[in-house]
Amino acid sequence: MRRFRAAAFGALLPLAACQHYAPAPLPEAALLAPAVDPAAQTAPLTVDAVVRLALRDNPDLKTARAARGIADAELIQSGILPNPSLSGAILPLISGVGIVPAWNVGLTQDVKALITYRSKRRAGRDVQGRAAADLLWQEWQVAGQARQLAVDLIGTRRQLPIVEQAFAILSARNAAMDAALRAGNTTLVLAAPTLAAVQAARASRDAVEQRELQLRHQLAALLGLEPDAPLLLAPAAELPPIDPAAIRASLVTLPQRRPDLLALRLGYAAQEESVRQAILSQFPDLVLGATGSSDSSKVVNLGPQATIGLPVFDRGQGNIAIARATRAQLRADYAARLATATGEVAAALTEIEQLGRQLAAQRADLPAVRRAADRAVAARGASAIDEAAYVSLLTARFTKEQDVMTLELAIMDRQVALQTLIGAGLPTVDLLTMTEPAP
């Protein structure tokens, strides 16, 4: 009995080190800030400043960083061996010739877990590295989205004065034509072009204003702000110049710099370990230990104990096939992602070159269009041009101004996409390393 109580006490002693439950209540209200932190906005926000705020305050990134703790916990779990098992029984004497109660105690350990231990540890490190790479890739995506929204919002705000000026000038002209029409000093045929032009100018202004509001709301949501939080941005979007030749030359090192590609490589390494574990698991289940017992006549027995599984039907063939098929799928996924990443960079460079040629042509046409519009204004004052030609030349000027700004914004959009694809100005992956190869 004393031996049994001592064994039971030793088995229950580890329970004293168990962790305890503590509630973690959910927030009662949306955690949206009414404005940018004043300490972070001492001046109008540049594109880089917006990126820094997004990396710090984006709600999805906060969730992703919290989720990374799961991979850290899984790494801890991968290094823990299964607990030994303690069994025991006491058999009180009910009848017969015995003189004391019988008892038995057994202590066993699963030995098979030791065979796959090192492989599971390597897989755990791979999974942890993949989680870090996935988080870094998400940071790249958020940074790229913040950069894109900031550039688009700044560019759209630059268009607002143009469309507002066009609408104001054409509205004044339309009011004058409407007054002349009511007074009988002109005809509907002569007034129609101005009316059509002012309606088109109104639609253009409304579209730009809607776009500006939509972009402001999207950027506020990305920064964890309330939808109508004020966003004071720099008047111009400054982006670093790109070197197409250097970017094309650096494509060979893209797999070492892109977090999504690193995540796939680490996931593939973890699956390699899964294949290794499935093969090692063909070793029969083996449980070793020792057992002791005493019968009712105080005869004590003590000796080793072994339980071995007989691989008659299940030899792990199904798990091996699944692990190998999953590895083949991951290999194909990596090859496809690598091809897509390389193709996207090349496509972005080609599009930037095309847009650059188109922008140069539009800029070359702009001075002549401006001069024609100025002459039309002067000629209209001297009644030397008809209404339709005047409105056409004036509208052409504002349209050309918008076309130039639209192409400038399109080029910057491609530059932002290219920066995200190659990681320019984004957190680096130097902290992510592949695990050592298995012996």
Automatic annotation (TrEMBL):
Keywords (A to Z) from UniProt: Signal
InterPro entries, alphabetized: MdtP/NodT-like, OMP_efflux
Signal sequence segment: 1-22
Keyword Signal included in the entry's annotation: yes
Keyword Signal: yes
Similarity section: Belongs to the outer membrane factor (OMF) (TC 1.B.17) family.
Protein name: TolC family protein
Organism the protein comes from: Sphingomonas abietis
Lineage: Bacteria, Pseudomonadati, Pseudomonadota, Alphaproteobacteria, Sphingomonadales
